[in-house]
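Appendix B, example 12.
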Amino acid sequence: MPSEQTAEAEVEMTDGFHLVIDALRLNGIENIYTVPGIPITDLGRLAQASGMRVISFRHEQNAGNAAAIAGFLNKAPGVCLTVSAPGFLNGLVALANATTNCFPMILISGSSEREVVDLQQGDYEEMDQLAVAKTLCKASFRVLHAADIGIGIARAIRAAVSGRPGGVYLDLPAKLLGQVITAEAGAQSLVKVIDPAPAQIPGPSAVERALDVLRGAKKPLIILGKGAAYAQADDDIRALVEKSGIPYIPMSMAKGLLPDLHPQCAAAARSTVLLESDVVMLIGARLNWLLSHGKGKQWGAPGSKKFIQIDIEPREMDSNVEIAAPLVGDIGSCVAALLKGMGDNWQAPPAAWTDSINAKKESNIARMATRLGKNSNPMDYHSALRVLRDVIKERPEAILVNEGANTLDQARGVVDMYRPRKRLDVGTWGVMGIGMGFAVAATVETGNPVLAIVGDSAFGFSGMEIETICRYNLPVCIVVFNNDGIYRGDGVNLSGGTDPAITMFVPGARYDKMIEGFGGVGVNATTPDELKQAVDAAMASGRPTLINAVIDPKAGTESGNIGNLNPKSALAAKK
């Protein structure tokens, strides 16, 4: 007869490490983005041993950016795992950016023991991380008992994706990970989240009100935002646009929901349609700074427009201007309801409106063609982007990651997109440094090749992740637009001293040499032909590649197209 001690020894046990992994996998999360260290190193090792893919970065902010864009691409929370205190703070930048952009993301950080933190006794990397995170994300939770890990992760998942998506912080003290309970109790404690983002159906009266406003329009316009791309209601959105016959403009991350060459796309006449339209329907777009808050000279006289806005968050309505027809609900449900309400006899906009837009488009496209046609040496932004526009046209399945000042602003208007969720950029905050994290996650989550077009300044924020790209042998081609500085590379030190101007970098820097040190392919391109040849070779091979695209230091303008946000010194202007 076995002894009581032997019977206890035969009981299968589990611990906090394994319960975290089991809870994530139960809910379909298979990828983790991380920087290993105390106290989460073994959690990463065990996750990898379980079959999860664990991508180890060089800096937590880049790992967090990867998790954030994974959430956007999948409509499920991306997961970033960090160490305590400084590592947590590094990841918090990405978490706040994810929340601002409405990307579902969970930042999981190890932390110091509560007993020591609460008495401020000076523990290793001591910080009340939960208190710090609360103001910068959608929700935050701390788990203290192993039996609560399952419910903690379930709450984090539901909070990240329900309603308006956003970032969630989950605090796991080091002692929690080592807690042991029986495997049976552990299995019973796990929670599979059911319907984490339920449909939110718009009210019938709200749908009819929106249709009434749209019927009365003489010069209607649709604006598609990245929320429309996130919704993955691609077929219905296209059907709504085409059935209505209304011209549309896509915000940058909504490009490709319909091909940019679609006959109703009015992006090439953006200023005209914003100014002259009388009814504007916003689908997954917000009237924030990116749209001049819906007012000012760009929009014409106050009261000259009526707005219809589709958003899942009621408080977004009337945030800057009066919304004549608020349509509160998830985008898929709202668009489907509008389609149904339009019936079979919907009247297209007056021909005078669409004809005037087409004439303006043709004029602007012709003017742009002249700039794109130059074979500049050294290259300017347009001659280089013409080449990359053709690369994407030939490979519409590739994902474009784009950041910088002029590099971002010019690429938005030059590079056409053909499929949804293929353009990833700086989003609502306009924050630099997302490039390499986005590039890694884009190919890890989709399996598609990535073309990253980044300015030399933007590249500096996350450039060390080229080692990560090489280590995992990812099919990423990075083109650094190198004009020797921020905005321009020909700045002047106003003091007359020997230090370089604050916006200048090392002249003639060779970023391509960096990736060669990690086993990748480096190319220096000085002409459009050299650039095209190098990018074609990189995309065909799938090898990690960095192309140093030499841009004229005199090319570019300060702050690109948002220079008005950078105030000038009145005193300096007088000198």
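The longest helix spans residues 351-372. The chain has 24 helices and 19 strands.
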